[in-house]
Amino acid sequence: METTLIIMAAGIGSRFGGGIKQLAPVGPSGEIIMDYSIHDALEAGFNKVCFIIRKDLEADFREIIGNRIEKICPCSYAFQEVENLPGGFKNPEGRTKPWGTGHAVLACKGIVDTPALVINADDYYGKDAYVKMHDYLVNSMDVNNNEVLDIAMPGFILGNTLSDNGSVTRGVCTVDEKGDLATIVETSNIYKDGKGGAYVEEKDGTKRPIDVESLVSMNMWAFTPEFINRLESGFIEFLAAGNATEMKAEYLLPTVIGDMLKAGTATVKVLKTTDKWFGVTYKEDKDYVIESFKKLIADGVYSERLFG
User: Fold this and answer.
1) Collapsing DSSP states into helix, strand and coil, what is residue 308?
2) How far apart are CA 171 and CA 168, in angstroms?
């Protein structure tokens, strides 16, 4: 079965070029985090890559990573542009902020026609999640049910996804007895608090404890092509609900999928992974990321030259 890795990289647009964190070399041969993600996905069995970028970044993006990856596997490009809205809606004057991760994946309509896995460009997820997601896509996912969509996600342990350098936002999940996602709550301002974790309520600044053993979503979702079609109708509803004139409203995958769960139009299989996530949320994270890859190489997880 053909399967596609979708990489959301359009959000790097305004900072592309000098010293942008998502494209900073972190490997010994100049590899960026995306290189390791693609390597792990191909190793797990994915055989196509689709990059979601902005059109004005295409030439630079191809030079930095695209042209190299095209020599390894088939690649395609989807373009997330703020003005590309369905249903006759127009971008509000002056809005430059992208419409979020749901809008990003919607840009793949007509381009990605295989079961797929979507990831963030600047997150390192570990090998285990790719293996589990590919195995589920190929062996377990109901690819023919367009009424109740079959979606899957790796459940990361919250404590394995926190930064030493500041707070983060995570989709905190509860799972039912069948291993399916029951609820997902987008929770902001989560940080390390001694040996545990805590978060700060946005509405009133109240500090609350949070279980670091909780499972969280890291915006890594596996789905069939029908999910992309469903994003379009959902986005039209989102815009029609008054968001079309908002300057900062975002159509986000965790919210979309959470709404599908409530409506009974999707189920989400959660496959737990104990791998440690890391990324460059803060500029201070870069040194930690570099040292982490050095250790992975020393432990034999990767070779010094990733693609030989």
Assistant:
1) coil
2) 10
On whether the CB atoms of residues 116 and 4 are closer than 8 A, the answer is: yes
pTM of the prediction?
A: 0.94
Q: Cβ of 204: how many Cβ atoms within 10 Å? A: 6
* Cα–Cα distance, 115 to 152 (Å, whole number): 11
Written as six digits, the tokens of 232 are 């379009």
**Closest to 35 measured CA to CA, from 102, 119, 110:** 119
304 CB-near residues (< 8 Å, 6+ apart): 28, 29, 297
Give the model confidence (pLDDT) of 213-232 as tens digits.
Answer: 999 999 999 999 999 999 99
What percent of the chain has pLDDT above 70? Answer: 96
By DSSP bridging, strand 75-79 and strand 116-120 are unpaired
d(CA 55, CA 12): 12
β-strands 266-273, 149-157: how paired?
parallel
Q: Quick check: helix, strand or coil at residue 52?
A: strand
What one-letter code names the amino acid at 67? Answer: N
Q: What is the dihedral of CA 281, 45, 156, 109, to 10 degrees?
A: 70
